Amino acid sequence: MPKVYTAFFRDSRAVRQFEERSAKVQSDIDRMTREIQDLRTRYANAMQSDDQNEALRLETLINRRQDYLREFYQIRTTELENEKKRLMQSGSFLEQVYDEIRFIAESEGYSIVMDLKQNNGIIWYSSTVDITDKLISNLQTRSRH
């Protein structure tokens, strides 16, 4: 479903807003990473010039920034994942997808469509195809032999 969602609904306003938020989060992460790298360079220079006070100050600052970045990443990633799930489970999206699955399945002669990546498995089935009687007959025939 994620592939279908991003391919078909990419032009929807909600998805564009989600992608903009994702890009902003990535931009913030990249910026913070560059800042930490710059602090590490300054720390190395302070160590080379034997400026212990500056090195200690920078080391403390680096640790704080790394902790903040780690927390920022975890929080924002969770928020984005939850938002993506909400978008993918919205009624209009699922309704359109299931209607199209039904149309394709019926027009191409499928009696069942399964999603092997999901626990529930069956996405669509045709109630017009019922092999129960044939199954019973075959089982009875085999049990007689």
From TrEMBL:
Which Pfam families is this protein grouped with? OmpH
Q: Which InterPro entries match?
A: Chaperone_Skp (IPR005632), Skp_dom_sf (IPR024930)
Superkingdom is Bacteria
Asked whether the UniProt record includes DNA repair among its keywords, one would answer no
Q: Does the keyword Ribonucleoprotein apply?
A: no
Q: Name one GO molecular function term.
A: unfolded protein binding
Q: Which residues form a coiled coil?
A: 15-90
What keywords sit in the KW lines? Answer: Coiled coil
Write down what this protein is called. Putative outer membrane protein
Q: Which organism is it from?
A: uncultured bacterium contig00024
